[in-house]
Amino acid sequence: MDFPAPGTRTQRWTVSGNLCDPVARRIRPATVTVSNGRIAALTWDSIAHDSWILPGFVDAHVHVESSLVPPSEFARLAVPHGTVATVSDPHEIGNVLGVPGVEWMLADARRTPFKFCFGAPSCVPATPFDRAGAVIDAAAVAALLDRRDVGYLSEVMNYPGVVAGDRDLLAKISAAKARGKPVDGHAPQLRGPDLEAYVAAGIATDHECVELIEALEKLALGMRIQIREGSAARNFAALAGLVDSHPDRCMLCSDDKHPDTLVLGHIDALVRRALDRGSDLFDVLQVACVNPVRHYRLPVGLLQLGDPADFLVVDDLKSLRIRAVIVDGDVAATDGVCHWPRLECDTPNAFAARPKAPADFEIRVADADRGRSVRVIEALDGQIVTGQAVVTPRIEGGRIVPDLAADLLLIAVVDRYADRPPAVALVRHFGLTRGAIASSVAHDSHNIVAVGATAADIARAVNLVIETRGGLSAVGDGRELILPLPIAGLMSDRPGTEVAARYAELDRFAKGLGSRLAAPFMTLAFMSLLVIPALKLGPDGLFDVAAFRPVSLFTD
Description:
By secondary structure, the protein is an alpha/beta fold. It is built from 16 helices and 30 strands.
C-alpha cells in the first residue's frame, strides 16, 4: 500500500480499507479521501479490502514526564503505536518549576503535530505536608484554565482536602466548572460517604482503581473510570471486564509510562489485549478512542465526514500491525517508524541539594528507643499503593541497619530544593542484596528518593543524581550507572530511543543487584507520594496516608 510522502498535509489523496466506524459501530469497505488535513469524502466500496482503517488511539491520562523525554520526543515514541493524542497532566514539572514549567511543556508540545491536551495542575504541591519546588494556587490555576491550550483541571489528588472542604482546592474546581472544563480525579481506595462527597464536588474521572468492586462503586456515582496499565501500576487485568459492561463510561490510560516500555507499545497493546479476551471491537474503540475525544472535547477525528483526518491503517484486527498512522491528514508514521524530526530543546531546572555523606543516611537509635518496633514501608509489585508493617529492627553500633535476610533495606528522601538532612526509614520487597538505586523522579514533589543495602551505597547513588542535577542512578558490584535528566530533573534532552536503551540498562542492573520488582525505578518513584496509601516517606519523614498525618519511625 502506498501512502503520500510525509509533510504533504495539504494535498488531496485517498486510501482504501475496511473502515471501522466507531460512531455507527459498523465495518464497511470504503475509500477515504483526505484533503487539507480533513476527511473530505467517504466512498463505500463493493468489495472487501485487505487492510483496515481504525480511528487513532488516545491515552486518556498520562504524565509525559514519566517517559523521561519532553513532549516533542514523547510524540515520536508514541505515534508509531497508533496514539494520536494524549490527555496529559503536567503536574510533575509543575511541582519542580511551577507555572513556568507548565508553560514550557505547552511550548514544546506546540512544536509537534501530535495532539496533546494539557491540564492545569490542581495539587502543586500534592499535599501541604510535602516539600515541592513551587506552589500553584487557585489564582494561577484559573489563569491557566483561561488558556485555550489548557483543556481541563488535572487530577485532584488531595482528596482529603476535597472532603474537608479546603477553600483553595474547591476554588480550583469551581474555576474549571465555570469555564466548562472537565475535572479529573485521583481517589485511590476512596469509598462510601467520603467518595460521595468527592464526586459531588464535581470530579468526573478516576484512574486509581485496582479492584473491580471499587470501580463499580465509582461508576454507580457517575464517575468515568480510566483503566490504567502503566510501567508501575498495572490494573488492566482486574478491570478489563468494564470494557464489556460499561463501554460508555470507561477509557484507557497509562498514567506513567517509562521509555523502555513505551518503545514497545502503548494504548495499542491494551486494544490487542481487550480484543484477545473477546471484547467487542466497537466497545474497545469506544473506550480507546470515542470516550476520551468526547469527554475532553479533543480536536481528534473519529472517521466521520469533515473530521480531522486522524486514523490508522492496520493489516488485520487480530495482530493490529500498524502500517500507517495519519495525523491531520499527514503521514506521521509507517511500519513502526516515526517521520517527525527530532527537535532540540533547552533544559530548565531547579536543584539546590549538595552532596551527602554515608553518615547522613544512618538511623541512630537513642537508648530509650532500643527494643522498640518500627514502621516499615512495603512496596507492592505492579502497584503504586504500598503496605505497611511493624518489625523489630536489627541494631548494630547504636544504629538501625538493613537486614538483607529479612529483605529490610534503607530508604531515604533527600530534599532537592534546599540543603537539608535526608529523611531515612526502612522498606521491604525491593529485594536488593547489594548496592543502591536513586532517582530524582519521585512523585510528586520530585525530591531524590533512594533505596539501598548500605548507607554508603545510598550516599553514592544519591550523589550521582546530585552531580548531574537530576537523573536515575544505580551502584553496586563495582559499577556506577547514571541516566542524566537535565530537564527539571525529570526528562532527558537525548533521543528517545537512546533514553529507552539507557533506562533498560539501569533496569537490568537493578535486577542484577537482586531486585525482584518488574519496574524497580518506577516503583521507587512512588515511595514518596504522600497521597497514595498506605505508608510513604517524604522529606520530613514517614507519612500515614490513611490518617493523613506524619508518623514517627518508632511505633507508640
